[in-house]
Amino acid sequence: MEKRNIWRYGRWLLLAALAAIVGCQSLGGLELNRALLAGMNTKSVQQSLSISLHVEPEAGKETDEYTKAMIDELNATKLELQSVKMESQERMSIKGQLTVQKGTVPFHILATPEQFLLKVDGVSRTIVVPVGFNSLSDSGSSDDLFQKMRKQVMAKYKEKGIDTSIASLIVNNLPNPKQIGVSSTTETIHNEQVSVYKLDASLTGSELLPLAKTFIRSLLKDEQAVKKLVGELYDVLWPVIEPYAKNGELANMLPLGTPMYGDPMGHVMESIIETASDKELAVDMIHTFIKQGLYFALIGVDSAQKTKEGPFGEVFNDNTKVSAKLSFDRNLDLRKSELEFSIRPQSGFDGVSSIKLNIRSESWDHNKPVKADALELGANPFVFERYNGFDGLLESADPNSIVGQWLAERQYDYPELLTLYIPVAASPEEATASDAYIEDGIAYAPVERIADFTGSSVEYDKDVVTVTDAWGTVIRLMVNDKQAEIDGESYEMDGTVRKHGDTVYVPCRFIVEELGASVWYDEYGGELSIWME
């Protein structure tokens, strides 16, 4: 299972929001570009955060009961993360609570590269959400070669510091808004007096598009920096891709054909390899493509700025307001923030005057030793399956709890699924005719059980196995072979067909998906779940 940097997406979102609001030029002794980039290098930190929404009814207008109930429910909703402990960019715990009209729901999350663990008030079992690629779920994304290449690329991406390079390009080209100021003061942050640069910035929706145009023009002029970034990305990607492209493995993933079988399209791959091997030429081609995209973006932003009606006109006007109050310490770490987004809907929200979103946070222990709060799986964790998890979750919830009531109200919103559970044996030798087993990361299951569940028939002719589904699709397999013939066309499976005694085992994911079903491996429960609507 591939590790993911769970912090990367959050910090990119934060950088984009702050950079758009406050700009990046030096002001009042505070170097904004350095301050924003400092956040990209955060390895560990503790934090608290709250998010609240306020919907203001339209004054002097009678509001119907539905709209009034919706406004009351939204105004009562608040998310509070009282303790966020980022131990590293790949491990983090969160303790907090969600407040709604009916009450408060405390929760505890532990996020790791392999899984999210969630303990929520009202649910007796620890909820497990696997992350990363699962070899039994999506056949496209779980291809072994793709996983191997992605892992190598991400390792080089991190080693080269590409995140910082991209962020530098962005922040060095963003202009400052008109309403912005910086002062030196002292703030109380996490019960500590901290000397800070306090930045106050605000802008309206009508200022956003002109700022975007200035930013795009600046990028177009900063050709040297853009080319430098493209070159760094080339140094990350091409050394990984090149060997697989040259030995032909990559061609099997792409619909370009192979010249050895006389397919003229196969020469496309040869041409791509030859061009990509020349770094100067490849960088110049990619840079030209990026410039063309920026030109189109500039035209699009300019066109949106001239549009006074429709969705663009409703958002990009003086009634839309964004403000930020940011406190940076002398190391330029962001220690305290308050962001407010306000919009006045002009259509589709009858009876609503304005909608405001408020986000407040404090942080401390930047790049100091931080230990994420542990969360135990318990004796019987609940592994959340993507398609039928809510049914099982409802069984584990207290019907009198807020979560239990919420799940009960929504249990009929999900399609009814037929599910087959196959126990997974510890080894092929221990598997019975009803069991599956896993070998080298590939699940093998009895073809008879899969066929019976999907309404398919199975015929045997010595070592030839023929599976015919309810729609007439014919799959021919051969024992000890990886090739599958489907309606006369040959495909390579991720494993060979096996025979143990009188039972034929097939690569589960491949066959299940060809028969129109889906499969998930519950490693905690030790079983395969196969389902179809």
TrEMBL record:
SUPFAM superfamilies: Copper amine oxidase, domain N. InterPro entries: Cu_amine_oxidase-like_N, Mao_N_sf. Coiled coil: none annotated. This is Copper amine oxidase N-terminal domain-containing protein. It comes from the Bacteria. PROSITE patterns: PROKAR_LIPOPROTEIN. Residues 435-529 form the Copper amine oxidase-like N-terminal domain. It holds the Pfam family Cu_amine_oxidN1.
